[in-house]
Amino acid sequence: MKIIDLRSDTVTQPTPAMREAMANANVGDDVYGEDSTVNQLQEMAAEMLGKEAGLFLPSGTMGNLISVLAHCGRGDEVILGNQSHIFRYETGGISALGGVHSHQLPNQKDGTLLLEDIEEAVRWDDAHEPVTRLIALENTQNKCGGIVLPQDYLNQVGDFAKERGLALHLDGARLFNAAAASTSSAKELATPFDSLTFCLSKGLSAPVGSVLCGSQEFIQKAHRLRKQLGGGMRQAGILAAAGIIALDEMVDRLGEDHLRARKLAKGLESVSGLILDEGTPHTNMIFMRLAEHIEYPGEKVAAHLHKARGIRISLTGARSFRLVLHYWIDDEDVEKTIAAFKELLG
Ligand SMILES: *Cc1c(COP(=O)(O)O)cnc(C)c1O
User: Is the pTM here over 0.90, yes or no?
Assistant: First the structure.
């Protein structure tokens, strides 16, 4: 039985082209800056996003941590969303390792932080208060449904940050999904930001890694922090080779995943035991919950689908789920998934 793994786009396996590129990659010691494949990936990413330089990293979490550490000193403050990945899912790293204070603002349904909330959150120059240094946004915003933050909004926050002398960071783990679902290019979406990370290892299907982009000066600082955190890798070109294929071949096809997400959502809407979140899917993720008349818990539903049909989904609460589309899910898998839910929940 083929496993239809809809838990996340992090489960994506490298493509055959990636495995071949990995086997044949030119490599060197990247801590000495001598891995030509890593250098190529970094230049490519920076170019695509309109930044001066890039840095290859083991994970997006490390990219966000390094960015916050590069922009803020101990006791300084970062303004971020209470539904942001940095706040919720990075084990409090910015405070544990950086002593950086987080100022959490409510993410609105559309994934944004209200501009007036941001304005109000910026501290006075007062000996009692921490110093505000950074605003961090997320695009697509995962917890708000994989929603895309609009270009106008990003520009407004960018203008505000400039005006107030604050740095602006983007957790763009799924930035290319945002671009695929928007009229803006990834470069345009990246323009207001001083630094940004994106994941190679999600919808782009590379096995490992993220890239951090920013100014030459910022990346120099980030490079030192990467070493400090133990993220200096040696012949990392083996991994970067897959990243190059990801940028070359996988970016332009992300719209297919969004299309399949809509197809799947349409099918699931007709299942009487399911209630889809309003507006879902915005990109490659479907969020939904069990209707009230369904008596068994979400855990049971997920376990049954896994055991009986080889379909894996994520629980986001006692009665709610997330399903994520990606390169390894095809139309047949979508049909099978709809059929399995229909059979189980009417
Ligand atoms: C996946 C993800 C990250 C980084 O995750 P890693 O697993 O550390 O690569 C950061 N932000 C968001 C929104 C994510 O979805």
Answer: yes
